[in-house]
Amino acid sequence: MATPSFLIVIGTSAGGMPVLTRLVAQLPATLPAAVLVVQHLAPDSTGEPLVHRLSMHTSLHCQLAEDQMPLLAGSLYLAPPDRHLLTRENRILVTKGPHENNYRPAADALFRSAAVAFGSHVIGIVLTGMLHDGTAGLDFVKRCGGTAVVQDPADAAFTSMPESALRHVAVDYVVPISQMGALLTELVGQKAYEPEDPLHIPHDLQLEAAIAERVMGTVEQVSEIGHQVPLTCPGCGGNLWEVNEGNVLRFRCHTGHAYTAEALLESSQHEMEETLWVALRMMEERKNLLSNMASRGEGYWSIQQAERLEEIKRHINRLREFLLSGSENGSSSAEKK
């Protein structure tokens, strides 16, 4: 098998495997491209059954990605659980770097690495899934001259990932899975491979890709691509920088965690709810203590404790109502996605 002329990079999450099997079944063994796939998996899962399932539906050579594997045309590489899948030149990198958008593997990390390595010879694809992974990645692909493809949300089991990509990126093609194989075969046959001029790859993306390869960056490096903002990284508690370039609002910390604005908002919501549940527990304990004090005292002192008890009961009820209301709204939003 030869070195690929193109990289096809795919990001998917909920509902992804049935769609992937339908897509790869349309791709010929002679495809002059390597296909790299990020399917969100549980950290303690194994990717081998998924590779076996894909191989039963395609003539592409399917395998679980391993570090330093060569990239070969007509091959499909699936990201291992709890590892980022990256590329450099014509080789695969598998790393355990920081989460991006709370995911590892992350489609954004793969798309950025591929875009920096192959430039205009990258086709980025976002398929069915929850939340926002892949949106910033498609922007990376476009900024390096590549092509952005999104599954038609009307054809997706879970529409969040395709809809997020369409809101933020100038996508080139929006197609159902039934038409995607023919589109990809046509796109990779349009031009012969020529090495990409590094000068045409944005410097900030080159730097971010280098940070991801080394697993962890420095304050000086992240300061080159963004400006510090008064926000805290949910992953490590460090400072965050707002990334200056690109069409998607993003944030990074110097240890390597990266977030779109939407992913950061969801992380902060989760942390806030956890904090408020702790506060509710502490208030309940205070209520119990005041109740004991009021029942054991006499006279004016006992009346004071009873008043304090009634006040904290009101606070507890308000906080409980707020938390339960937030949980119900979150469940409704998830169902809509």
Automatic annotation (TrEMBL):
Reactions performed catalytically: [protein]-L-glutamate 5-O-methyl ester + H2O = L-glutamyl-[protein] + methanol + H(+)
Database matches in InterPro entries: CheB_C, Chemotax_prot-Glu_Me-esterase, Sig_transdc_resp-reg_Me-estase
UniProt-recorded name of the protein: protein-glutamate methylesterase
Top-level taxon in the UniProt lineage: Bacteria
Gene3D superfamilies noted in UniProt: Methylesterase CheB, C-terminal domain (3.40.50.180)
Entry EC no(s): 3.1.1.61
Catalytic residue positions: S13, H40, D133
Residue ranges occupied by any CheB-type methylesterase domain in the UniProt entry: 1-191
Top class in the EC scheme: hydrolase
Keywords: Chemotaxis, Hydrolase
